[in-house]
Amino acid sequence: MDFYLLCLIVGGGLLAASLLGGHHGDPGGHGLDHTSDTHNGGAGDLASWFSLRALVSFAAFFGLAGVVGGAAGLTGAGRLVVALVTGGVVGAFTAVAFRLARARGEVSGAATRLTGRTGQVLVPPAPGRPGKVALTVGGQIEHILARSDDPLRAGDAVIVIGTEAGVLDVKAWDGRGA
Fold this sequence. Notes:
InterPro entries: NA-bd_OB-fold (IPR012340). By secondary structure, the chain is of the alpha+beta class. It contains five helices and five strands, in the order αααααβββββ.
C-alpha cells in the first residue's frame, strides 16, 4: 500500500471521527491543556505544534497531497515536497487556530465535566481579575483560570460550580459534600 494513501486513510479517518464524534477537547481526553498554553513559556508554544490534533491534521493532509500529487503525475522528491508543505501548513494552521480558540475560551466543552471537581487555589482571584487553580484532570494536574465571589487565599480548597468563557467558577470548599 502507498504510504501517502495510508496516511490519508489513518489521518483522515481520525480527523473525520473527531469532527463527527463531537469531541470538544483535546484528543488526549481532558480538553483543557491550559498548562501548555499559558505558563510554560516557549515550551508550551512548541508543545502546541505537536499536539495530537495538529499531528492528525498533518497526517491527513500530507496523505491527501501525496495521493493527489501522485495522480497528477508527480513522483519521488516532488511528491514528497508537496505533501510535506501541505501537511505542514495545515498542521500549523490547526495548532495556531486551536491555541487562539483556547486562549479566548472558545474551546471549553470539557470544562463542563469539571463541575463538582475539587482543587486548590494557586493564585487567588480578585475582583475583575481571575486567579488560577490546580485540578487533577485525566491523571494530570492542570492549572486553570478561575474566578470566585468567595475571598480565597493561595492553598485554599475549592470546588468547581460552573464555567463561563473558559474560566472556572469556584467556591471555597470545606471537604464536605457539595
